[in-house]
Design goal:
The protein is mainly α and 228 residues long. The protein is built from eleven helices and no strands. It has a domain of 120 residues. Helix 3 packs across helix 10, helix 5 runs parallel beside helix 7 and helix 8 packs across helix 10.
Length: 228
């Protein structure tokens, strides 16, 4: 078991925007929302990002992450594979599917290469033909013995920070406006993390048709900064 200070370092490592998985290159439909005028200021950006956080990340991606962490901790690699396939199947557009698979591949490869994973986990990370990002992230959180609630908070924070940085570039927002938005939305994270844990044993749901439409239309958007 890691010391509290080492566990914190590992947690910050996983949540860092410097983690080389390519998260900075995706907007998850936000770019199209800006292009069509649905999002044009800080208030609208906060509304859009907050809705995706509450309706998709907390209700689908978060519970999937928790179930994956528990499966990794139990050494239940058959369940890991099943949950991984199930999560990939929830991705509703080509871009969202490509995003989680690309980031999952990048993180899994990084975890294998840094040499800090047990051999059984390294082998399991190399197993699936396609690995979702939450699957690889959960492997690291489980192997590093991170507290479940802390890990959920870190995952939500990393997603929220990435979306905020996308909004700063796209809307565009000034750095101060972006940080104010991040500060306000992050106040919900402890409550949302608790909701994720409460939903972990139930069904996943990600009913957010506006985001799905935005991601689908983004595939043919004429000019793009982001890959989703």
């Amino acid at each position: 078991m890691p010391t509290p200070s080492l566990a914190l370092s590992r947690l910050l490592h996983l949540a860092s925007p410097a983690l080389p998985v390519g998260a900075f290159s995706y907007s998850q439909g936000l770019e199209w929302a800006v292009e069509c005028g649905q999002v044009s200021n800080a208030e609208q950006a906060a509304h859009w990002i907050g809705d995706v956080l509450r309706l998709v990340i907390v209700r689908c991606e978060g519970p999937a992450l928790v179930q994956l962490m528990r499966a990794w901790r139990a050494g239940d690699h058959a369940s890991v594979l099943a949950l991984n396939a199930r999560f990939i199947a929830t991705r509703e557009t080509a871009e969202l599917r490509a995003e989680t698979v690309q980031m999952g591949y990048s993180l899994a490869r990084l975890l294998r290469d840094i040499g800090d994973m047990p051999d059984a986990v390294r082998d399991a990370l190399a197993g699936p033909r396609e690995m979702a990002f939450p699957t690889a992230w959960a492997a690291a959180a489980a192997c590093w013995h991170l507290d479940e609630a802390d890990a959920i908070n870190a995952y939500l924070w990393a997603w929220l920070e990435n979306q905020t940085m996308a909004a700063i570039k796209l809307v565009p927002l000034g750095q101060t406006a972006g940080q104010k938005m991040l500060l306000t939305l992050s106040e919900e994270l402890p409550t949302l993390a608790a909701e994720v844990q409460a939903r972990a044993e139930g069904e996943w749901e990600n009913f957010a048709p506006a985001q799905t439409i935005a991601c689908g239309l983004h595939e043919t958007q004429y000019t793009r900064l982001f890959r989703s």
